[in-house]
Amino acid sequence: MSSVNTMSELEEVRRRLAVLEEEKLQWEAEKRIHSAVLDNALDGIAVLSPDQRYRYLNEPHARIFGYDSPGELVGESWRSLYGPRELARFRRDILPVLREKGHWRGEIRGRRRNGLPFDQLLALTALEGIGFVCVCRDISARKRVQREVAQRSAYLEALIENSPLGIVVLDKDGRIELINPAFQQIFHYRRKEILGRKLDGLIAPRQENRKASEYTARAMSGEQLIRFSAKRRRKDGAWIDVEVHGVRLDVDGSPVGVYALYQDVSERKRAEAELQKAKELAESANQAKSEFLANVSHEIRTPLNAIIGMTELALGSETEEERHDCLEAVSLSADTLLELINDILDFSKIEARKLRLEAIPFDLKEWLGDLTKVWGPQCREKGISFSTDFDAELPDQMVGDPTRLRQVLSNLLSNAVKFTEEGGVTLAVGLSGDGPASLRFQVEDSGIGISPEARERIFEAFTQGDGSTTRRFGGTGLGLAISAHLVHLMKGRLDLESEVGRGSIFSFSVPLSRARRTSSHRISDNGHIRTQGQVDLEDHEGLRILLAEDNPVNQRLAVRLLEKRGHRVTVADNGRQALEIYEQCRFDLILMDLQMPEMGGYEATERIRQLENGRSKHVPIVALTAHALREDRERCFEVGMDAYLCKPFKSSDLVEVLRGLTQAAPVAT
Ligand code: ADP
């Protein structure tokens, strides 16, 4: 071997060494670069052997799993960092994909060193002959935020969905972006029907209301809070009252639309309106009642003043003639007073719905004759004419309530006379053609007439044509209210035609029925007769009468009235006394007050009827009472009374009742 060769070989070795040295330096540099790259990567990176043990891992990988340095995991099994469920998933789902495609990527739950699970994003790549490369990223924070966001939005969603108020969100142009179930419920629209549409077209406002778009524009232009109530239309066309609160919706500082709350307040509005109406009604009723009381007081004082004054004059009068004149005036005023009190009583009965009609047979022609007899002279006295126009076909016998019918016509006729100065009054009665026995009554006058405005009111209780009428003509304003109600009870309607200055026509038709049986029985306005059995009062002059009455003045009055007619009267102060006297003496007739101390009239009558039973003959008992209710009357007949006289009564009423009792045949009612 030559030295040259040796030298050159040596050179070669040196050169190679230098190259190797160079390569080593480079390799080390590269290794440093690699580890710098790997250790500074944001993701965890590892290389696993085919049996899934760590061959290499970078620092982030160790940290993700909770280890301080990679060295702690090198050689350890990768599987120890996963729970049984994830390992099963690895075997079942991931490994086959890795084998087939060479890589897999997905979310998987790892386990940190302290045992707590965490979410990671994992990419696995199979390296032939080496094992696997595994890149993982801790996404637990992102997941947690995602979960929180989902929870938060579910919460907000629930707020909107469950809101008892209707919620609507409109975009800048007023198109519907969102509605909640309450909004759907208020307007009956389903979500998909209205999303993207403009509110005005859907829940179009009533004319008097502003449009939703106006409010939207105001909110968009920065008005703080829009609050309004309006009428809006539902899908089915019904109008509802809504109350709306709206604000501009700003997202990240810029306006994106309008957010509004709707509340259906129809029910409340209705209740409020009703309350208001009731309040007004109560107020006006109250006012009308005060006016009425003032009127009544005035009306009562006028005849009372006459009664008191004239009585005083009568007491001090020198001559019989003067006394007679005074007492006549007293009697007239007392009649007026009675009429007024009857009106008030009728009215309160109507108010209490206690007024009921009778259905009794009566002679129509006779009844009309009586009416004419009263009103003809009244007109003549006033210097106006009175004419009648009765249909020739009118039936003789009718069934109805002649007393109440007379009351209505008397009211109408008295008004007609009262308000007519020239011309006259006509009473017309005919068949109305509505039914076999329907009668049409009409009272026409040529008086002052009634203005259209007054026409509306005069049928209401307590009201008169105008306030001044009261002072000029008197009256309580009850007559027409009572009449209209009575006609209504008779299934008719009181109509009015009138022209101011020319006169008025009041008319009504009522269905009566024809009487099947004729009866000559008369019913007086004041006394009602219904016999229990045959009454023996053949001659009703000079009767022996027992009077049960506790009030001394009334006792004296009745005694005087009866004695003047030739009767003999025994007075009992109460029912018990009446019973005792009855047991000792015989009487032709008993007049029985109903309300008395110790024993009232009902009980006394019952006892008398018991004593009578089978022993003595039937003594007629006539009730005397200041109660005018139908129930009282019925009770009288129930306990065995024969007739009924309402206080105050006149001697002529008593005569009428006595006549009725002697003529009485049982009446079919
Ligand atoms: P009053 O007791 O005041 O007469 P009404 O109820 O009978 O009460 O009548 C009420 C009002 O109706 C009267 O006050 C009067 O203004 C008007 N009125 C009734 N009938 C007539 C009529 N025939 N002509 C003109 N006005 C009438």
Q: Could you walk me through the main structural features you see in this protein, from its secondary elements to its overall organization?
A:
By secondary structure, the chain is of the alpha+beta class. The chain is built from 20 helices and 24 strands. Strands 19-24-23-22-20-21 form a six-stranded mixed β-sheet, sandwiched between helices. Strands 2-1-5-4-3 form a five-stranded antiparallel β-sheet, sandwiched between helices. A hairpin with a 3-residue loop joins strand 16 (495-499) and strand 17 (503-511). Helix 10 (320-351) packs across helix 15. The longest helix is centred in the middle third of the chain and has 51 residues, at 266-316. 27% of the residues are buried. The model is unreliable at 468-472, 518-535 and 664-669 (pLDDT under 50). The structure holds adenosine-5'-diphosphate. Adenosine-5'-diphosphate is lined by residues 411, 415-416, 419, 445, 447-450, 458, 464-465, 469, 475-481, 504.
> Structural class of the secondary elements?
alpha+beta
How would you state the average pLDDT, rounded?
Answer: 85
Work out the strand percent. Answer: 15-25%
Number of strands: 24
Number of helices: 20
Termini separation: 168 Å
Spatial arrangement of strands, main beta sheet: 19-24-23-22-20-21
DSSP helix fraction: 40-55%
Largest sheet: 6 strands, mixed
Shape category:
rod-shaped
Uncertain stretches: 468-472, 518-535, 664-669
